[in-house]
Design a protein that fits this description.
Order of helices and strands: EEEEH
Low-confidence stretches: none
Helix content: under 10%
Number of strands: 4
Number of helices: 1
Oligomer: single chain
Largest sheet: 2 strands, antiparallel
Mean pLDDT: 81
Strand order of the largest sheet: 1-2
Radius of gyration: 14 Å
Distance between the termini: 40 Å
């Protein structure tokens, strides 16, 4: 894998964002992805999105009231 194509987080102490290629090494632009509740799940691109999302339980990406095994703070 050519690490020069992989992006990095940039930003301030309070706000960060992903710049550059996905961590999968495809060279495609990476972006953060979140579940239906807005919880950070990782970096993905068009090439690896389905693979990354398939690692999570069904409904986690689409149903904000999915069952959780721990308490979820409502902000």
């Amino acid at each position: 894998m050519d690490n020069s194509k992989i992006g990095r987080f940039e930003g301030s102490r309070y706000y960060r964002y992903w710049v550059g290629g996905c961590r999968c090494g495809s060279g495609k632009p990476g972006r953060e992805f979140f579940d239906a509740r807005g919880i950070y799940c990782g970096i993905t691109c068009d090439a690896c999105r389905k693979d990354n999302q398939s690692r999570w339980a069904p409904g986690v990406m689409t149903d904000p009231s999915y069952a959780a095994s721990e308490a979820v703070d409502e902000d």
